[in-house]
Amino acid sequence: MSAPHIACQQGNVEQTYDATNTHPVELCVVTGAVAHIRINPPSGTQWPLADAGPATVVQRLDSRRVGNALDITLAARSKGTATVAVGGVWQLKIAVV
């Protein structure tokens, strides 16, 4: 049985994640794209701001809180794998192709 194929989104990406799912499906973007990611933490929780790296693969352009949601904007700089992390409670793998 082969691993699941992740379809890569072309161009800029806007994606929202329900953070009650602590292992979301990997996001795939193309080099040069900008990704706007919103993370909705579980109701009643206050999570730290999201961060991403390594900086050689994705550049964090912005990370802020909007109400209870966390917004992070990234620029895909070069091919590789990066991680968006919110403290030790949630993470998302990003493939840049």
What does this structure look like?
- With 97 residues, the protein is mostly beta strands.
- The chain is 0% helix and 52% strand.
- It has no helices and eight strands.
- It has strands spanning 13-18, 27-29, 34-40, 51-53, 58-66, 69-76, 80-86, 90-96.
- The strands form two sheets. The protein has a four-stranded mixed β-sheet, with no helix packed on it.
- It is globular, with a radius of gyration of 13 Å.
- The chain starts with 12 loop residues before the first strand and ends with a strand.
**Beta-strand share of residues:** over 45%
The major beta sheet can be summarized as: 4 strands, mixed
Q: Give start-end ranges of low-pLDDT stretches.
A: 1-5
Number of discrete helical segments: 0
Order of helices and strands: EEEEEEEE
Cα separation of the termini: 24 Å
Defining traits:
single chain; 97 residues; mainly beta; 4-stranded mixed sheet; 8 strands; 0% helix; 52% strand; globular
Summarize the structure.
With 97 residues, this protein is mainly β.
Secondary structure blueprint with pairings:
Elements: E1 13-18, E2 27-29, E3 34-40, E4 51-53, E5 58-66, E6 69-76, E7 80-86, E8 90-96
